[in-house]
Amino acid sequence: MSYQFNYQGKHHCPAAVLSCIDFRFWQTIVEYVHNELGIADFDFPSVPGSAKAINDGEPDGLAMSCVTIPLQLHEAKKIIIVNHADCGAYGGADKHESLDAEVEFHKQELLKAKAKILAKHPDAEVILLFAELIDNGRQIDILTIE
Ligand SMILES: [Zn+2]
């Protein structure tokens, strides 16, 4: 069995999407980036907690290399960081008093990660997204935080 490879001779992509490993969210995130942001090709590193891994990690640690390598090796210009609702890396949804409190918490985490990335890569365009659970956990809505 072999599979078609569409990138022969190509080694650059416009963006990297840093997301959590959570199996419940990543397919929707990929679909959103394709369909809503119109980005066909992107690196897709996944680390537990997404922004949390940047915030807790060493300045040159694994999570930051998930951003540095796309920017340097693949000449990506955009870094898209996606956090999500009910993230186990942060202790799950029960840790927050309300859905609004959960969104606000993740907003602060995403902003902190953005600042840390921009301190190291001032020319990167950093987009912050949050995958929210709505309709009693039956639907995902992707919020643009910044
Ligand atoms: Zn998660």
Account of the protein in words:
The chain is of the alpha/beta class and about 150 residues long. The chain has one domain: Carbonic anhydrase (Beta-carbonic Anhydrase, Chain A). Helix content is about 35%, strand content about 20%. The chain has four helices and five strands. It has helices at about 25-35, 50-55, 60-75, 100-120; strands spanning about 15-20, 40-45, 80-85, 125-135, 140-145. A five-stranded mixed β-sheet has the order 2-1-3-4-5, with helices on both faces. Helix 1 links the parallel strand 1 (about 15-20) and strand 2. The longest helix has 22 residues, at about 100-120. It is globular, with a radius of gyration of 15 Å. The N and C termini lie far apart (about 45 Å). The protein binds zinc ion. Zinc ion binds near residues 20, 22, 49 and 84.
CATH superfamily: Carbonic anhydrase
Mean pLDDT equals 97
Number of domains: 1
The description of the largest β-sheet is: 5 strands, mixed
| CATH fold annotation | Beta-carbonic Anhydrase, Chain A
CATH class: Alpha Beta
What CATH architecture do you see? Answer: 3-Layer(aba) Sandwich
Low-pLDDT segments, ≥5 res: none
Q: What's the total number of strands?
A: 5
What's the tally of helices? 4
Name the bound molecules. Answer: zinc ion
- What is the global morphology? globular
Radius of gyration: 15 Å
Report strand %: 15-25%
How does the helix and strand content classify structurally?
Answer: alpha/beta
Intertermini distance: 43 Å
Multimeric organization: single chain
Side by side, the strands of the main sheet go 2-1-3-4-5
**Element-level helix/strand string:** EHEHHEHEE
Helix content: 25-40%
